[in-house]
């Protein structure tokens, strides 16, 4: 049975991305180790819970998924493809005009999976490092990071979210990370989404800078200089780009990282339920589809992402696949979700592998 669809994007898809966290699960969520630990060991128990973690796929299941994808791989004509490419931002504007900030919900897994977004409050000494605000540590004075050659110039910890939508990652970061040296940038190519972020009562221009930016446009400038960011986060965003634009977009982002800075990503994995559910006539190219509302989505393998990040000169810290079995107990339905999660770090220029003496970039190529 088909899942409920909101303007082409499945509601279940969103709910599942949020790991279905009803309010009575919040304490459980806080304790939840990465990716959860509810394993389905007895298939007869499948409808006992809403979700099962780290589900193994059998060879037959993988082969059936591959067959289904191959049967639906006839690409749309070139004119149609171009139309979706040229107007990509407009389709997302329409999406946000319809759904405003009701669609993507805050992610309860954000800080368990990506503790880099709110590292433990720094010691008094390290918080002062690079601190140009002598009054900062008395906790009584408003701190503005807007006074400098660029927004956030005087900050000591800079995070940027690309493809921020309506701020479901940015606002939790601002709320959770109480480092006075924090500054958060967020951008999206949908001007409607950026307006929604800026009009949110939680938007604080002294700690945050939202701007319109098309990641796939190599001529578009970022407001901060190269080598200035500690963390860049992409959540279900790279998949929305044309595959031909992915490598250069990641390489451009890598330039913005400080040495030691981290690029974090969570996105759709190959054979996710959303991929298998696409009807014929929605395929743009291999594993790349257009939804009913004109927004596009790609489904990654771990190797593809590894190659993008390594070619951008980054070093693997984490690259894993999260396979989850989602259960609709009322309807006795099972849904297999697949997400990939990556953390890649920009090496320090002089860093050599201790065993080989090679630079980390070289090590990544092998
Ligand atoms: C699936 S939504 C995810 C939104 C947000 N990251 C979240 O998790 O709620 C994808 C977002 O990427 C944005 N996007 C797509 N292509 C983009 C591009 N080339 N440059 C910047 N943003 C883009 C869309 O406007 C949309 O807000």
UniProtKB/TrEMBL annotation:
Ranges of Low complexity composition bias in the record: 1-13
Region (Disordered): 1-38, 122-147, 346-366
UniProt catalytic activity: cytidine(32) in tRNA(Arg)(CCU) + S-adenosyl-L-methionine = N(3)-methylcytidine(32) in tRNA(Arg)(CCU) + S-adenosyl-L-homocysteine + H(+); cytidine(32) in tRNA(Thr) + S-adenosyl-L-methionine = N(3)-methylcytidine(32) in tRNA(Thr) + S-adenosyl-L-homocysteine + H(+)
Comp. bias intervals (Basic and acidic residues): 347-366
Start and end residues of each Methyltransferase type domain: 160-263
Localization of this protein: Cytoplasm
Keyword rRNA-binding attributed: no
Gene Ontology biological process terms, A to Z: methylation; tRNA processing
Keywords carried by this UniProt record: Cytoplasm, Methyltransferase, S-adenosyl-L-methionine, Transferase, tRNA processing
Entry keyword annotation includes Transmembrane: no
InterPro entries: Methyltransf_12, METTL2/6/8-like, SAM-dependent_MTases_sf
A Gene Ontology molecular function term of the record: RNA methyltransferase activity
Group of enzyme by EC: transferase
E.C. number: 2.1.1.-
Cellular component GO terms held in the UniProt record: cytoplasm
Family: Belongs to the methyltransferase superfamily. METL family.
Functional summary from the UniProt entry: S-adenosyl-L-methionine-dependent methyltransferase.
Protein name (record): tRNA N(3)-cytidine methyltransferase
Source species taxonomy: Eukaryota, Metazoa, Chordata, Craniata, Vertebrata
């Amino acid at each position: 049975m088909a899942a409920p669809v909101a303007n082409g994007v499945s509601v279940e898809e969103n709910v599942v991305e949020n790991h279905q966290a009803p309010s009575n699960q919040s304490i459980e969520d806080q304790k939840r180790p990465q990716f959860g630990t509810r394993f389905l060991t007895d298939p007869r128990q499948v409808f006992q819970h809403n979700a099962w973690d780290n589900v193994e796929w059998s060879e037959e299941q993988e082969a059936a998924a591959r067959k289904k994808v191959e049967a639906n791989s006839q690409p749309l004509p070139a004119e149609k493809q171009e139309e979706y490419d040229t107007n990509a931002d407009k389709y997302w504007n329409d999406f946000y005009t319809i759904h405003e900030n009701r669609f993507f919900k805050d992610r309860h897994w954000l800080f368990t999976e990506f503790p880099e977004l709110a590292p433990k409050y720094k010691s008094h000494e390290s918080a002062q490092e690079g601190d140009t605000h002598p009054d900062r540590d008395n906790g009584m004075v408003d701190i503005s990071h807007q006074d400098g050659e660029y927004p956030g110039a005087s900050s000591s910890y800079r995070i940027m979210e690309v493809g921020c939508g309506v701020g479901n990652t940015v606002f939790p970061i601002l709320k959770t990370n109480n480092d006075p040296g924090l500054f958060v940038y967020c951008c999206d190519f949908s001007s409607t989404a950026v307006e929604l972020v800026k009009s949110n009562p939680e938007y604080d221009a002294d700690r945050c800078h939202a701007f319109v930016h098309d990641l796939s446009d190599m001529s578009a400038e970022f407001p901060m200089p190269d080598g200035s960011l500690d963390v860049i986060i992409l959540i279900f965003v790279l998949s929305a780009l044309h595959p031909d634009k992915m490598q250069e977009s990641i390489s451009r982002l890598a330039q913005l990282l400080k040495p030691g800075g981290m690029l974090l990503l969570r996105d759709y994995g190959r054979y996710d339920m959303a991929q298998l559910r696409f009807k014929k006539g929605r395929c743009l190219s291999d594993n790349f589809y257009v939804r009913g509302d004109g927004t596009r989505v790609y489904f990654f393998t771990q190797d593809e992402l590894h190659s993008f990040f390594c070619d951008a000169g980054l070093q693997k810290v984490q690259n894993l696949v999260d396979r989850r079995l989602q259960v609709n107990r009322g309807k006795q339905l099972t849904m297999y979700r697949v997400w990939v999660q990556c953390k890649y770090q920009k090496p320090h220029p002089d860093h050599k592998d201790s065993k080989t003496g090679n630079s980390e970039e070289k090590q990544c190529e092998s």
